[in-house]
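Internal tracking record. Fields below are filled automatically when a chain is submitted to the structure queue. Please do not edit lines marked as system-generated. If the sequence contains nonstandard residues, flag them in the REMARKS field before resubmitting.
Queue: standard
Priority: normal
Entity type: single polypeptide chain
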Amino acid sequence: MLTLQQIKEDPERIIARLAVKGFDGKQGVNDVIAYDDRRKNLQFQNDTIAAELKKKADSIGRLMKEGSREAAEEAKKEVAALKEQQKEIAEQLTAAESAIRDILLSIPNVPCDMVPEGLTAEDNVVEKTGGKMPDLPADALPHWDLAKKYNLINFDLGVKITGPGFPVYIGKGARLQRALIQFFLDRAGEAGYLEIQPPYVVNEASGYGTGQLPDKEGQMYYINEDRLYLIPTAEVPVTNLYRDVIIPSDQLPVKNCAYSACFRREAGSYGKDVRGLNRLHQFDKVEIVRIEKPECSYAALEEMKDHVQGLLESLGLPWHILRLCGGDMSFTSSITFDFEVYSAAQERWLEVSSVSNFETYQANRLKCRYRGEDKKTHLCHTLNGSALALPRIMAALLENNQTPEGIVVPECLRKYTGFDIIN
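SYSTEM-GENERATED OUTPUT FOLLOWS
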């Protein structure tokens, strides 16, 4: 969440930048400042009463020594009244602090100055394009038909045992899936990311820490008896490793990667947008997470973008990078770049990665800090990115590499699959 200091330093800028996300922050910002003024006034009253209580306590002891029992008893009554008053002020102080936190939790992250204005995906900016477009015959098949033809993925079995959005990978389909995971993990390791194997369920504190709660409760699977959530991405457990942690300056940056299954309740739209692998409730993904000093985070963001671009180039997929407009960004992000690959048989672009810088927004929720050379603690910047999400990568690989002889496996994956072609 935003810090109180951020809002107080330049409330007008905060309101203006939130408008880039299509969020009217005027009321929330003004309310936070008003509650903080009330909090400071209450704190002053509380401190004044505390000082008066100390004086009264000293005077009672002196009066008792002097034998002025009536005066001492009167002073005791005054102390009791002050304590009652202090109790009421403490309750009001707690309420003001709670109101400030509730409002701050409801305000999204401020988009950085590089974020373009706009409210929908149509307003996103294509920043960079690469890769060669495949030249497929007119009768090229979409991936769901290829999966059936070569017995790679069975969507009907997934519906039978669970429901829509839970595919079953079979034979070479399962092996190709596993090959992609290992390839992504190996490349992340080569780039200096320490691999983590996180839990697939998290508690409420973890959900709040990375901003999934209270914003995205409806998109997460909830285990009611244990009050736990299935993770929507490995970002959640991995970033929460650093909740309530002060990281020594010389241990930054932190670079972690993790493979996990991901679970999302979101239903999405209908038709081709959700058919096959286009939108699932359970899918596999390799995530990269970084914890950085603020002055280093935007250089780190560029490194992460280069890393994802390198994976797509190795796979031989046509790709482009979108700089998301304010209205298409997540609640917690300060800036996001989406990578999309071209699905030749569907003739459409498919999102396969989001790389984001959250600046201090998550770190403030997490209390993730580092100790600087000034010996003081400062909030870190957190970043993460998909490197990569598998379903749409698999879809594009199957469609773009289909030939009369079968589906050609990219060279970089062959040492993992043990086969060059699916036929």
